[in-house]
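FORM 7B: Structural annotation worksheet

SECTION A. Query
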Amino acid sequence: MIKILVFIIILSQSIYSQSLNFCDSIRAVGDSLELEYKNNPPRFIGVYDDSPEPVGGFKVIQESIVYPVDAYYNCIEGTVLLTTVISKDGKARCSQILKGVHPSLDSCAIKAIESISWEPVLKNGKPIDFHMCVPVIFKLTYREKFKLRIHRLFSKMGT
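SECTION B. Predicted structure
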């Protein structure tokens, strides 16, 4: 029980400190927190009517990814964690990398998130700008890894 409590406290402090890195000020507004950002309108953390979701579901993110050639041939995999703002009109903007894997995968993740349409977040029935974290997973299948290993083996034998 104590270990779980310590983990929750550490996690909440981590989330709070990350939110401070992205905003200039935080103030309470009713049941929400208003975060003010440089050059951007405020976003809210609190109670919402629904959660943000890509039009067509989260599988659309994976379907919109074109694996970068350099990362593919070097078998680079991983999860890119980025923050983005889902605007009132359902467009993702102001995306930033929180945890990157490789520069080409990071830029591909941002392109994928910003190229798809999102359902806007509603608060009290009205669409609002919403700041969220999105993980984008880059994973090669076993078959792809096998083909790349065979390709490397034959290319070494040829030289």
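SECTION C. Observations
Residues 1-46 form one domain. The chain has two domains: 1-46, 48-158.

SECTION D. Sign-off
Analyst initials: ____
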